[in-house]
């Protein structure tokens, strides 16, 4: 329901309500004196004026509009969370980053390339389209599907979707707040997922994408990043590696995040294994 629809419904309701309740105390007394069916006790009730009624309905309409048009990022926790134990805690979900998806980017030399949103300097993000020369700490290998088993992009992304959908919140003590597959387009070759931590509701953004046309082969680019904070304490690496392991069991080439190539990330986040 969009804002125009909400406004139309609200104004229609206001009009009918004002017509019905727009009787002041004076109006009621006059009606009673002229033989109306209103009884004498009704004269002792302060009926709202037209202005008061209108103000009341406008306040209600604002509340209704806010609820109906609220961003999905401000909605309640994901239904597949593992526990209700921390529901009373304020959640820090952050806002959805600008620039997700496949788009033209520029590397550090100013050269344009087609890729996913690059990571920043914080050790809380991995992206396979980040240049290994410019950003070795955030670059990871892409996933590659087995062409002898999956003969089309659609088939590969159907399998990716099934693997992501089967992801168990709480694995390796992460993502206990559940997750939601926000976008799934097997024809275009794109999946966007939001994962949430259990206690504080931190949301991480995860993307899988084919870049280029169908002649570019069987390569799926990967990005996983935290919205808030500087460190992620290994969360993004653990998430990527769980999914990579599941894909390897199905014949994919999916190395994930390797400790030997990302020791700086591990040391800063204080983790010894992913």
Task: Give keywords.
2 domains; signal; DUF1499; 15% strand; 274 residues; single chain; alpha+beta
Structure description:
The protein is of the alpha+beta class and 274 residues long. It folds into two domains: 68 residues, no CATH class; 167 residues, no CATH class. Helices cover 30% and strands 15% of the residues. The strands form two sheets. Strands 3, 4, 5, 6, 7 and 8 form a six-stranded antiparallel sheet that branches. Helix 1 packs antiparallel against helix 3. The longest helix is centred in the first third of the chain and has 20 residues. The radius of gyration is 28 Å and the shape is globular. It holds the Pfam family DUF1499. Keywords: Signal.
Summarize model confidence as the mean pLDDT: 80
Number of helices: 6
Per DSSP, what share of the residues sits in E-state strands of 2 or more residues? 15-25%
Characterize the main sheet.
6 strands, antiparallel
Task: Give the helices and strands as they follow along the chain.
Answer: HHHEEEEHEEEEHH
Structural class: alpha+beta
> How would you describe the shape?
globular
Radius of gyration: 28 Å
Please bin the fraction of helical residues: 25-40%
Total domain modules? 2
- Cα-to-Cα separation, first versus last residue: 43 Å
* DSSP strand tally: 8
Low-confidence stretches: 2-75
């Amino acid at each position: 329901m969009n804002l125009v629809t909400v406004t139309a419904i609200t104004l229609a309701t206001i009009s009918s309500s004002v017509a019905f309740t727009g009787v002041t105390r004076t109006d009621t007394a006059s009606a009673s004196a002229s033989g109306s069916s209103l009884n004498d006790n009704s004269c002792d009730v302060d009926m709202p004026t037209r202005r008061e009624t209108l103000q009341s309905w406008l306040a209600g309409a604002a509340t209704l509009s806010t609820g109906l048009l609220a961003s999905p990022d401000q909605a309640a926790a994901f239904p597949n969370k593992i526990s209700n134990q921390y529901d009373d805690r304020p959640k820090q979900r952050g806002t959805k980053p600008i620039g997700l998806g496949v788009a033209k980017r520029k590397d550090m030399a100013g050269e344009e390339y087609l890729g996913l949103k690059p990571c920043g300097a914080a050790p809380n993000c991995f992206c396979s389209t980040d240049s290994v020369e410019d950003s070795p700490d955030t670059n990871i290998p892409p996933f590659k599907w087995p062409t002898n088993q999956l003969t089309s992009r659609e088939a590969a992304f159907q399998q990716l979707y099934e693997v992501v959908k089967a992801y168990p919140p709480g694995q390796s003590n992460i993502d206990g707040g559940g997750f939601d597959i926000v976008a799934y387009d097997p024809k275009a070759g794109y999946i966007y997922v939001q994962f949430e931590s259990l206690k504080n509701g931190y949301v991480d953004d995860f993307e899988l994408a084919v870049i280029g046309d169908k002649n570019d082969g069987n390569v799926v680019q990967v990005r996983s990043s935290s919205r808030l904070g500087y460190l992620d304490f290994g969360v993004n690496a653990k998430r990527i590696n769980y999914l990579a392991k599941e894909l390897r069991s199905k014949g994919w080439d999916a190395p994930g995040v390797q400790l030997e190539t990302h020791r700086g990330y591990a040391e800063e986040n204080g983790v010894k294994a992913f």
